[in-house]
Write a structure and sequence with these properties.
The protein is an alpha/beta fold and about 180 residues long. It is built from seven helices and five strands; from the N terminus they run βαβααβαβααβα.
């Protein structure tokens, strides 16, 4: 492991379902050196989901696993950029700020395409009726413009590569 002089930087890519969080997060991982991308949805397997019967319990378990993983990365001081894709809320914000403490920078980048774009079938993804309903709820709840966001991007009219490039430029300018 190499010695670091800079703090690690935790980067949350937030926004509603189908906003492009995972796609942009994976591209950002390739653009930023010494980085890792965490797909929070994958922190709980389909098999494990049966142990958490409610939607809220599954969310809580995924987030608890995320917090432990972030703490592990920060303890080892590697990698420099830790990127994760998940809608940000106040409880998560406070937990990650506490996990980061003085050991890491923390930035929230929220993807905010127009609602009609989020509700459309993009790429190979076909939205379920539940996902469409949930997207509407997320927009009504303000998850597309989270109040603690450092940067909100309307990515409805640009490629995922363009969006990831904007985020990479912002992060490097702000945190190095």
């Amino acid at each position: 492991m190499n010695e670091k002089t800079q703090k690690s930087t935790i980067i949350n890519i937030g926004g509603a379902i189908n906003a492009g969080k995972s796609t942009v997060g994976k591209l950002l991982e390739k653009m930023l050196p010494d980085s890792v991308f965490i797909e929070v949805d994958d922190l709980l397997s389909d098999e494990e989901e049966k142990d958490f019967p409610s939607f809220e319990e599954r969310i809580l378990e995924r987030l608890n696993r995320l917090y432990r993983l972030l703490a592990k990365y920060l303890q080892s001081r590697a990698p420099h950029y830790i990127i994760f894709a998940y809608p940000m809320g106040d409880k998560g914000y406070r937990a990650i700020k506490e996990t980061a403490g003085d050991n890491a920078n923390f930035a929230i980048i929220t993807l905010n395409p127009p609602l009609a774009v989020c509700l459309s079938d993009r790429g190979t993804r076909k939205l379920s009726a539940w996902e469409q309903k949930r997207i509407g709820e997320m927009y009504r709840d303000g998850m597309n413009a989270y109040k603690h966001s450092d940067l909100i991007i309307d990515n409805g009219g640009e490629t995922p590569e363009q969006t990831a490039g904007k985020i990479a430029d912002y992060i490097v300018k702000r945190f190095g």
